[in-house]
Amino acid sequence: MPSGNADKIRFAPDGMLYIAPTGGSLVLPTDVGDGATAPAGYKALGYVSENGVTLTPTITTTPLPAWQSAAPVLYNVDSAAFQLQATLLEASKLVTETFFGAEWVEVEESGTPTGEYRLDLSSLPELKEFSLVCDWAHKGHLWRAVINRAMVAERGAITLQRTQAQQFELTIDAMDASGSLGYILTTEDMVD
């Protein structure tokens, strides 16, 4: 008799990443949403490469050995992390400002807009904190990962080519928010 259940295998054929500035009146989503609408206060980051989104929860531990045992008798948590990786495809204001960590300003000449825009890359950049939501769905089941406080930890290189779209590769780390790195919501019955 097989012990597996193929009906419980899930894919993520569709989804969206949403971002919002932290603080102020931002209220974190407490429901899984409808799978198509941005949570209140959040904006969509648009298309993601066909590789999708990678969610990585990590716990680093140190074993405690004892004289009476060849195996550890206890593990102590050294660190915990929750990381999201994605390659964004749209060269929008929101995506490029998130990727470069700076804001676009309109260039003016003698007080008159020139129709050009400038994004200054600082040698001492100010790190920007934000909240992130990742939605996905499969077989009628909705899923949502919510990170209260996040920051871009790594950025990939942008390749400028004739035949390949620009890609904005981001690694985003969750930061502590009163003992929480975030949470996952779903409409799928996980109590059975």
Question: Would you give an account of this structure?
Answer:
- It is a single chain.
- With 192 residues, this protein is mainly beta.
- It has one domain.
- Helix content is 4%, strand content 51%.
- The protein is built from 1 helix and 10 strands, in the order ββββαββββββ.
- Strands 1, 2, 3, 4, 7, 8, 9 and 10 form an 8-stranded antiparallel beta sheet that branches.
- A hairpin with a 2-residue loop joins β7 and β8.
- The chain is globular and about 80 Å long.
- The protein starts with 13 loop residues before the first strand and ends in a 6-residue tail after the last strand.
- It holds the Pfam family Phage_TTP_17.
- This is Phage tail protein.
- InterPro entries: Bxb1_TTP-like (IPR058154).
Which SSEs are present, and which pair or pack?
Elements: E1 14-21, E2 43-44, E3 48-66, E4 69-88, H1 93-100, E5 104-109, E6 112-119, E7 130-138, E8 141-155, E9 168-174, E10 183-186
Antiparallel strand pairs: 1-2, 1-7, 3-4, 4-9, 5-6, 7-8, 8-9, 8-10
